[in-house]
Design a protein that fits this description.
Structural class: alpha/beta
Strand content: 15-25%
CATH architecture: 3-Layer(aba) Sandwich
Number of domains: 1
Oligomer: single chain
Distance between the termini: 35 Å
Shape: globular
Order of helices and strands: EHEHEHEEHEHHHH
CATH topology: Rossmann fold
CATH superfamily: Flavodoxin domain
CATH class: Alpha Beta
């Protein structure tokens, strides 16, 4: 039995992974005749937020520095008080080894955002990480086309499976499987977060040393 008739997805997507997940959710919602609207956090943060009380809210964003990026955290911090059900999702670096998808690290992303949203009155119904193709090619090895296709297919079916449970009002806390590694990494998340903000993040952008070879474009998994 379907519990929700309307879904609002707030997504922040740097290179497309979180946006792709959002599109898949909307696709599965349409199959169930559920109204699903997508809003880019980069745009929505400048507008007033008005959500019907019977609407399921999904917030999805990539993880960097073992936390949500500042734009997402600031959006959650300014989110109005309410009582809606909320599902938190993130995309993190996924790699393929053999026929296995290696998990990334969520760190404190769900911990921090859950506390902020609960203080505002919301009920957290799920915490779901997705290990999408890593696009940090200056750090992670470039993925082959087969590896990217494998990761997309694996996550597509994960989204479908979780949506079936979510639409019927079920709770989905997949993140609990990684609770040990997330707790272990949490003490260094602040230092990494600062380094990610002022150092590592720059590795996503071309510097004056770029010679226009287009290798990053050709190998981008997104």
């Amino acid at each position: 039995m379907l519990v929700y008739k309307k879904i609002r997805i707030y997504y922040f997507s740097g290179t497309g992974n979180a946006k792709r997940i959002s599109y898949w959710i909307r696709e599965f919602a349409a199959e169930k005749n559920i109204i699903c609207n997508l809003e880019n956090i980069d745009t929505a943060r400048h507008n007033s937020i008005d959500i019907d009380t019977d609407t399921l809210v999904i917030i999805i964003s990539p993880v960097h520095g073992f936390n949500y990026p500042p734009i997402t955290l600031d959006f959650i911090r300014r989110f109005p008080k309410g009582s809606n059900d909320i599902i938190l999702m993130n995309t993190r670096a996924g790699l393929k080894i053999g026929k296995t998808v290696t998990p990334g690290l969520t760190g404190i992303a769900f911990f921090v955002s859950t506390i902020m949203l609960k203080m505002k009155g919301y009920k957290i119904k799920g915490q779901i990480p997705f290990d999408m193709p890593s696009n940090w090619m200056s750090i992670h090895p470039a993925l082959s086309e087969n590896a990217v296709a494998f990761l997309h297919e694996a996550n597509f079916y994960k989204v479908k499976k979780y949506c079936d449970r979510i639409f019927e009002g079920g709770s989905v806390f997949v993140s609990y499987r990684d609770i040990v590694q997330d707790i272990l990494i949490s003490p260094i998340s602040l230092g990494y977060y600062i380094a990610g903000r002022f150092a590592f993040a720059k590795s996503f952008y071309a510097s004056t040393a770029c010679d226009g070879c287009q290798l990053c474009v050709k190998q981008c998994p997104v």
